[in-house]
Specification:
single chain; VC0802-like; 18 strands; globular; alpha/beta
């Protein structure tokens, strides 16, 4: 039946009980006749013995500056441990398995330690093991440079590993297993009744992820789009169909409501309107490359802490006043590019006004509307938009 790639995150491989659930999905795919490639993350999260953040703390404890190459070397260990453990679990069931590091699996990356990009994959080592009838278990989140230095891929690295391997191996599907049964319309912690979406397009999933949704990383979805590869986001702990991410869009008007919290905002003000060239300079400084509208004499951008001095210098250059605001959030409503974005914005703004939610600034774009609100309003804002379209 061809090759299938299965990726399991940290919570899925954390405990013996969860690893049994992982094993069930692997064995089922083998029984269905698939050649199976498994990609694993490090076990658990900060505080767990083999979690990536825990390993990094071993270096930080000494207080000196950490060599990025050394940090990547220790960061790669968590996934390698997971790969070895899962391969052993599989072999205990009488099925041959092979654990591989990212570099053994033929993954070549740039030299950007801590946030490398995959530039090529030689699928030969994996294909050889599959021909031997083995389940191949690959350590995610890592690769090697042309100089044979070990690198890591940054946030969402194991998702990216799985999708890119799927592309080079010409897999039928890549299944991303997590602790939730797919991609929900919005964060179930904010709206418990929010439904999970049967299908979304690559574009919808990318926009959701870039605006705060955390189920799948945007780099992985972009890779899936590049390879025209279908990705299923599923739960490790049940047999639900999950969410299919592919070329076909959802059937919803608003397919996602994303929230990003704890942001910093810079508001630029002056008596005359900003020119197009000045707007371009502000947009370049923006953390999300978006310039939010307040009024003609004000422009608002999201800003990182390390860019505040640059923001002040730019204010002097523009002869404008800049004020910084902490503890802000961005709430985004995602839709297909064919939707009337102005109509969506008008409906949402009417709802937020009715709910007495202050919008600091907003931006209406072809595929989503974004609203800047205070942190303490984010839950109320998400719920209000949800009720507007999913009452």
């Amino acid at each position: 039946m061809g090759i299938i790639v299965q990726k399991f995150g940290g919570t899925s491989v954390k405990s013996a009980e969860s690893r049994k659930a992982v094993l069930g999905h692997i064995l089922r795919a083998k029984e269905e006749g698939h050649d199976v490639v498994v990609v694993v993350s490090a076990m658990g999260r900060m505080g767990d013995p083999y979690a990536t953040d825990t390993l990094i703390e071993l270096l930080r404890a000494h207080g000196s500056k950490i060599n990025p190459k050394t940090q990547d070397l220790i960061m790669s260990c968590g996934e390698i441990i997971s790969a070895c453990v899962m391969a052993t679990y599989i072999e205990a069931q009488g099925i041959k398995a092979e654990a591989m590091t990212g570099f053994q699996a033929g993954i070549l990356t740039t030299e950007a330690f801590g946030n490398a990009d995959i530039i090529n994959v030689d699928p030969t080592p994996i294909l050889e093991k599959l021909k031997e009838g083995k389940v191949v278990v690959v350590a995610g989140f890592q690769g090697k440079t042309k100089k044979n230095d070990i690198t890591t891929l940054g946030r969402g690295g194991s998702d990216t590993t799985a999708v890119v391997l799927g592309g080079y191996l010409k897999a039928g599907f890549v299944d991303i297993y997590t602790d939730v049964p797919g991609i929900a319309v919005t964060d179930p912690r904010l709206v418990p009744e929010a439904p999970f979406i049967p299908k979304v397009s690559y574009e919808e999933a990318i926009t959701m992820a870039e605006n705060g949704a955390k189920v799948i990383h945007p780099r992985a979805v972009k890779a899936a789009k590049q390879f025209n590869l279908k990705v299923r986001v599923k739960s490790t702990f049940d047999d639900s169909e999950g969410t299919l991410v592919g070329p076909e869009a959802s059937d919803l008007i608003v397919s996602g409501i994303s929230a990003a919290k704890d942001l910093a905002v810079a508001k630029y003000e002056r008596e005359r309107a900003f020119t197009d060239d000045e707007v371009a300079k502000l947009q370049t400084l923006s953390a999300d490359k978006t310039l939010y509208d307040s009024n003609s004499e004000e422009r608002v951008i999201l800003i990182s802490e390390e860019d505040k001095d640059t923001a002040k210098s730019l204010a002097e250059e523009l002869n404008a006043q800049v004020n910084f605001f902490e503890n802000m959030s961005k709430v985004s409503a995602v839709y297909k590019a064919t939707i009337d974005s102005r109509a969506v914005d008008e409906k949402i703004m009417a709802t937020l006004l009715k709910e007495d939610i202050q919008v600091i600034a907003k931006k209406v774009l072809a595929d989503h509307c974004a609203y800047i609100v205070k942190n303490d309003c984010v839950g109320k804002c998400v719920k209000a938009i949800y009720k507007t379209y999913f009452n």
